[in-house]
Amino acid sequence: MKVAIASDHTALPMKAELIEEMIELGIEYEDLGAYTDERVHYPDYALEVSKKVADGEVDRGILICGTGIGMSIMANKVKGIRCAHVQDAFSAKFTRLHNDSNVLALGQRVLGHGLAREIARVWLETEYEGGRHAIRVQKIADYENSN
Ligand code: RB5
Question: Does ligand 1 come within 6 angstroms of the Cβ of 68?
Fold first, then answer.
């Protein structure tokens, strides 16, 4: 699996933690910035990661900003993206099992780094269940494709 990861200027420390987690898990990653704490705009980073996921260049994406909310709003505007803004490990597991989420959004100002790493690990390691959930995920895609 290959993962694209990005944060805005507020979330560089958490991005570094999650990169460390991916290295420990043996997951290939692409760090798309930000690289310094100079002010940037989170929608630019959310778009870059989400387009790579939607285009199939990477399998999944991880986005971090102050709250995780701005990143998730932008990511979910990209066709094919199912971005989950997650703050606990239970939701991380079930958004993979049931929603087949392909982008994870986290908040540097909300979560401790230990919890963020646990959330990311669970999210990265959990496979989509499919089955009855496929009908529901397909309904999302159908709506997206009709617009
Ligand atoms: C940046 O100040 C902040 O708005 C951003 O990191 C994020 O929290 C937006 O949702």
Answer: no
